[in-house]
Amino acid sequence: MSAPAAPPAPAAAPGVSKGYWQLTWIQFRKRKDAYAGLFLLLLLFSMALTAPLLANNLPWYASGPEGVSFPLVRDFFFPLDHLDRFYNLLFVTLVLLGGAAGLGTAVRAKPPLGAAWLLAGLFAAVLVDQLAEMLIFLAYMVRLSPGAFPGLLGWITGLVQGGQGPEPAGIWAVRLAELGAIGFALRKIFQLYRQAQALGTRTLWVFAGVTLFLLLFFVSRTVGGRNVMPDRYRELKASGQGTVLMPLIPYGAKEPDSARTDHPPTAGHPLGCDNNGFDVLTRIIHGSRISLAVGFLAVGLALCIGILVGSMSGYFGGWFDLLSGRLIEVFVCFPSFFLILTIIAVAPRRSIFWVMFAIGLTGWTGIARLIRGEVLKVRQLDYIQAAKAIGMKNSRIIVRHILPNALAPVLVAATFGVAGAILSETGLGFLGLGVEPPTPSWGELLNQARQDPVRLWWLMLYPGLMIFMSVTLMNLVGEGLRDAMDPRLRK
Amino acid sequence: MAEGEKALLEVRDLRTHFDTDAGTARAVDGISFAIAPGECVALVGESGCGKSVSSMSVMRLLPSPPARVASGQILFEGRDLLGLSNAEMCAVRGKDIAMIFQEPQSALNPVFTIGDQVAEAYQIHHAGSRPREAWEKAVAALRSVGIPDPESRAKDYPHQLSGGMKQRVCIAMALICSPKLIIADEPTTALDVTIQAQILDLLRTLRKEHNLSLLLITHDLGVVAEMADRVCVMYAGKIVETAPTRELFAKPLHPYTQGLMRARPEPGSSRHGRKRLAVIPGLVPAATQFKDDCRFRTRCPLADEKCGSEPALQAYDGEHCAACWHTSAAGVQAWDARDAKGGPA
Lengths: 491, 345
Description:
The structure holds 2 protein chains of 2 kinds. Chain A is 70% helix and 2% strand. By secondary structure, chain A is an all-alpha fold. Chain A has a 3-stranded antiparallel sheet, covered by helices on one side. In chain A, α15 (364-378) runs antiparallel to α18 (408-430). The longest helix of chain A is centred in the middle third of the chain and has 37 residues, at 280-316. The radius of gyration of chain A is 26 Å and the shape is globular. The two termini of chain A are 45 Å apart. Among the domains of chain B are: 104-178, no CATH class; 252-267 and 276-341, no CATH class. Chain B contains 11 helices and 12 strands. Chain B has helices spanning 51-59, 86-92, 114-125, 131-144, 150-153, 163-175, 193-210, 221-227, 245-250, 255-262, 330-342, and strands at 9-20, 23-35, 40-44, 67-76, 79-80, 97-100, 181-185, 213-218, 230-235, 238-244, 314-317, 320-322. In chain B, β9 (230-235) and β10 (238-244) form a beta hairpin. In chain B, α3 (114-125) runs parallel beside α6 (163-175). Chains A and B meet through α8, α16 and α17 of A and α2, α3, α4, α6 and α7 of B.
C-alpha cells in the first residue's frame, strides 16, 4: 500500500484506557453495600438454581437389591414442572460450561496441573455418562409410546414403526411448517456461530451456552416429566436392605405430610410446617425460584415492550410517537396492581406465566419513556448520521448504534423493576391469586399465616424475611449501579 | 469540467427548503454544479450559506419534515437520486457515494471497536460475506489510510484514538466499499493544523490511487487552493461564482469572492499599511428573509439600484462564471476604499 508516512501512535496505549463497563464496574465495587448486595443476590440465585439438590424427597444415591441408582439426578433432568426444568437445565448448562472452561484451563496450564486433569477427566466421564443416559432414556421412551410425542419426533417415530392409525387431515401442513421452522432455526444458529467466531471467545461461550441449554431443554421437554416414587426409597431405607443417601433437607416441595400440619419449628423442620403439612424451609427454598423467575421474566417482558415502543417512538417520531405517548398515558392512569388483578381475573387459567405476563404488561411504560428520551438524545449524534451515510438501514441503526448507547439508564430502572415485580407477585400470592397451590411461593405462605399470624408466626416471619431480603438486595444493587453510572459521582 | 465529458454527479437547479415557524427557509435555492470522474470540486462559503445542506441533500440525509427538496435533479451517473426509494438510496449511500464528516470525535460510535465499525460498513454492501473477510478488509482499509499496526489498532475503541486517527478511521469507513464519489464535509475543521495537512495529503493520495471524485465542503480557502480542481463559491443558498481553482484565485470576479480572498489571514502582512484582518461587514441574511434581489447587496461595496433584480450565473471567460452585475476588478478597489473609509475601527 502506498500510504503516506504514518504519524506517531496516539498517546493512549492499547489496554491502558478503560471501556465504559470497566469503569462502571470499578465504581460499583467502591460501594461496599452494593457489592455485598450483589454477592448475596448471587447466593440467592444459586439457591434457586440448586433448590432440588438442597431440599428434595428423593435420595442422591440409593443402593439396594435392585441395584444402584441416582434418583435425584435423574429427576433433575426430567422434572414435571416447566419452571423447574428451566432452572435445572440452566444449572446443568452452567456446570457444563464451567467444567469445559476448567478443562480448557487444565489442558493449557504450564506446568500441567495433575489435579485439574483428574477433575477434568471426572467431569468428562460424568458428562458422557449423563448424555448417554439421557439418550438411552429418550430412545426407550420413544420405543415405548410413539403416539405420545407430538410434532416432528412423533412423525419420524411413526415412519420408523410403520404408523399408528389415521392422522387428522392437514397434519402434513403442520409437519412441513415444523420442518421449515427447524431448518430455518438451524440455519440461523449456523450463521450466528459464524458471526460469533469473528466476535471473539466470550461471545462464542455465550452462544455455546444458549445452544446447549436449548438442546437440553428440547430433550427434557420431549421426554416429559416423570412421576417420582419417594416412598420406594423410604421403604428401602426402613427395611434396612440398602443404603439411601438423602439431601440435606429431605422433604419434597410438593409432598405434604398430613400428620404435621401447622407444626411449629423443631429440629426436623427448622422453620416449621404449613397448613398443608409442607416443610416451610423446603417451600422457601423452592419458592425462591418462583419469585426470581417472576421478577426477571416479568421485567424481561416489560423491557421487550418498552424498548420496542420507546425506541421506535423516539427514532421515528411522528404519528407513532404521538400514539404510543397516549397509550403510555392510558396505562399510567390505572393503578397497576388493580390492572394486574384484572388481567389475572380474566386469565383462562391460573399459572405462573399469566402472573408474569400481567406484571410485565403493566410495567413497560416507565421503561418506554426512559428509552424514548435516550433515543431522542442519541439519534441526533454524528455517528448516527455517519451510519446513515454508509447506507445502513433504520432497523440496524436502532439495534446496533442507538440501543447500546441508550440502554445504561434502563438497566438501573430494570433492577428496581425486578424488586417491584417480586413484591407484586408476593402480593398476588398473599391475596390467593398467585401460583396454583401445590407450587411453592413466598406469598402463598404469607397467605396461610393470615388466619392467625400470632399463633402461626413462623409462616409470617420467615417468608417475610425472604421477601424483605431479596427486595432490599435488588434495590441495593440498583442504587449501586445508578451511582456507578453517574459520571458526576465519579472521583 | 471539460466539454463533452460525462459528469459523475450533476446537480441541476437544486432547491432545498425548510418549513419553519418563521416561514420557509430557502437554505439552498437553485444551485447547479457537476463533478466529473476523478475531479475534486470545492463548495466554499461562510457559515450558513447552504454548503452542508447541499451535500446532505445529495445524500438525502436531511430529516423531512422540516427539510424538503422543492425542485431540482440530482443525477448520479444519469440516475436521479431524488426519485429513488429509501431502500435504493441505502444501496447508493456508502457504495457509490460516501461521506466524511466534520467531527471525527463524534462520527464514531463509542461502544464498538473501530475495526467493527469499518467491517460493518463493508458488510452492509456485501451481504453474505464472511465476518472474517470483512474484518480483514477493515484491517486493510485501516492500513491504507495510514493507521500504524492496524491489526491491533482495529480492536481499539474510538476514545483510545486521537482526533486525526479517528478522521483516518472515518476515511477508511468511507473508502471500504470503493465508492466513486466522496463528499467531505469540512473534513479538517476540527483538527489542528499539522494533522490537517496529513489528512489532506492522505485524501489527495487516495484520490489519485482510486480515481475518486471528491466534493469538498469547506470555508478554508487554503484547503481549496491545495485540493480542488474547481471551486463553487456559495452565498446565501446560491452559487455566486464558479471557476477552475487557479483562475479563481488569480482573478476573482464576484465582489463576495474578492472579499473572501481579502479576508484570509496573512501572517505579518503589512499590506495596505495595517495588520488588522480584513472582514466582510454584516451577516448573511436569514434564510427565511431572502428576496429576489442580489443577496449580497446589503454587504456589497459595489451595490446600486441594478442589484434590486437577481443576477444570473454568466460565463465570462470559458469556465469562469459569476452571478453579479458588476463583475470586474473594480470590486477590489471598492473593498480597499471601504476599508480606508471605515479605518481600523
